[in-house]
Amino acid sequence: MRASLSQFFNSIWYGNGWQCILFLPITWIFSQLVKVRRLAYKNGWKNSQSFPLPIIVVGNISVGGSGKTPLVIWIVELLKNAGYKPAIISRGYKGKAGTWPQQVRIDSDPVVVGDEAVQLARRCQCPIAVGPDRCATIEALLEHTDCNVIVSDDGLQHYAMQRDIEIAVIDGIRRHGNQRLLPAGPLREPVSRLEEVDFVVSNGVAERGEYAMLVKGLVARNLVTDKVQGLERFSGQTVHAVCGIGNPERFFNGLKQFGISLIEHVHPDHHPFSEEDINFDDDLPILMTEKDAVKCQRFKSEQHWFIPVQADLNKHFAPRLLALLEKRKNDG
Prior knowledge:
nine-stranded mixed sheet, 2 domains, six-stranded mixed sheet
């Protein structure tokens, strides 16, 4: 049911469905709330907290998957190589922890702290904390770690947290859909918000003033044996492709490029997987995203593989990001 609802909204947001007009009155109310809230922070009517170290926000202005997580992983690696000690904060979306914030480790339960947080912990090997109050989450990291720069996975609209650098990620194929705000369109903030950020990264083809990012999944890793093999080994085969992310078509299309025939199983973003969701009455390989795989450890078999992805950025992005970080750090 939830997957069908998601598919319905995607069809009107990105397919110019006439049904969007039904939601325009609510969209008008939402747009006014967005304006008032932003004005309140700009004018100091609502408090915004600063911190003694640089904060880099990687977010977007739309709902759904745009590629933030691969970019966060890439930025953390860049910062490490440049001599920084990065840490990550995130919302911990769908996490069911009784108290927040929560420290995240490679063996943390994704049910408690959220699937993306565990994925980041396994890939980044750096301090990570999650919680709905990002300011409190930063304070927890400052208390327990020696980090000297923080990367916020999402949080572009979390104006209670002051930031030094803003990076907005957009889907290079779907762009901004019908360019309407929620719920008539996919946007959390108007497209004009992109004029205020420091960098716009396009996951796919970049337009003028944007930095192109290519997200590649070239291998599959087995959930039981940890064996790694190139996706070309599945060429000509039929597989079950299981996906619970914001833009499943991107995952499916990546597999099809290797000549793999798919039986597609679509679930909502952050879906709480059960055994029935990933086991089928046949012996076909079952391929899934890395984010989904962290929630399927209890049900894994040698049929199950996940596809780790790597981000490849425009060559000008890294030096410009590091230069701006150094400038903002010195200005502060």
